[in-house]
Amino acid sequence: MKKIAIIVGHSAASGGAANAKNGMTEYLFNDQLAQRIAPKLKNKGHEVLIVYRDCTYTDLPFKVNDTGSDVAVSLHCNAYNAAVSGSEVLYYKYSKTSPRLAELIQKEVVAALDLPDRGLRPVDKSHAGKKGDRGGYLCAKTKMPCVIVEPFFIDNDNDLSTAMNKMDQLSEAIAKGIAEYVD
Asked: What is the mean pLDDT of residues 129-133?
């Protein structure tokens, strides 16, 4: 049995990117997604902790570290110009273990959503919680393998519709990628 931290990106107070048409935010979508991933991993015999950001971003890695988890997966959604589409997973570029976790999750997410494969994206901590930090600080400061899943572009109506309609498949895909890594 492994302990898995599922981090819900952003917070109720700061919802992250949003879809202009229906108002869905990263936080609202990913809270629902985390609630669907957790039982799938528990059914595989793992302990799952859903981590909410009720602290500053710079304190988040330490909160995650305090869980004693074996892996951490942060759930987010991309946004750019309402036209870009696709799935990607980010990992700390100096990690020796996170790229494999990212690869396994990305493979499953792309198969589940059938959106363009934007690949794996290495990130670093050079922006350290400032504008331009795509999660490098979180991934660098956690003690366990940590990735950031960006399964679709929330500002793209078609991507959001696909993700909403396939939320069960998406949650299963993420759970499967995590389980394959830890088992």
From this structure: 56
Q: What is the reported pTM? A: 0.95
Angstrom distance (rounded) from CA 150 to CA 90: 8
Domain span at 27: 3-182
Give how many domains the chain has, as a whole number: 1
Segment holding 178, helix H or strand E: helix 167-182
Of 75, 74, 76, 80, the C-alpha closest to 20 is 80
Do β-strands 146-150 and 71-75 pair in parallel, antiparallel, or remain unpaired? parallel
| CATH code, 97 | 3.40.630.40
Spacing of C-alpha 104 from chain mean position? 13
Residue 123: closest CA among 56, 80, 74: 74
Q: How confident is the model at residue 57 (pLDDT cuts 50, 70, 90)?
A: confident
Over range 13-37, report the average pLDDT.
97
pLDDT attached to residue 127: 55
Sequence-distant (≥ 6) Cβ neighbours of residue 18 within 8 angstroms: 24, 25, 26, 79, 154, 155
Cα separation, 98 vs 103, whole angstroms: 9
